[in-house]
Fold:
Amino acid sequence: MEERLKINGYCAITKNTVLCNGEVNIEEEGLTVKEFFKTLYREYSNDYSKFFKMDDASKLTFLTAEILLKNCAILEEEKDELAIVLANKSASLNTDRKYQESIQEKENYYPSPAVFVYTLPNIGIGEVCIKHKIYGENAFLVAEKFDVKRITEYATILINTNKAKFVLCGWVDVDNDEYTSVMYLVSKEGGEEYSEEKINKLYQSIR
Structure:
């Protein structure tokens, strides 16, 4: 099953560093998470104002996909055949904490529905699909750890049943100031041979 897939490209973001297809694209020091994400947005997109309404998990999903798709040989018309399968560990816990802080003190009780505008992990996928006009299958899984095998098996089923030609797979997790994303684009054609070991090695290299 795995031998039939090819890796068309990959991107990883963590610790104020962007690694894309084996090269360090950006490496910044001394920036907060929000400052770094804003820097990436201005560098790679800068044309999607809803970015500033997103929570950090959605921003990281959006940015990683944006950078990867810009660095892969996938045509605009092929995006109709693109599916997305992502996962994380924290779900929307980062945003849930902020909401809890707004209600836990009676003196400063100020619950804001605006906190939940972008609160679910799949919202990030939704914004990627809107920006790139992607209409294929998509799913966001919640797991204890980055399970490359499970994610890629899901992608392989989509490809083998002709529900997608390309699948954007990966892990996007934000927990307070700790954040890690790894995305890889797979299909049956082009790129290097897929292996679970390659993706796990990439993930471990940025931990």
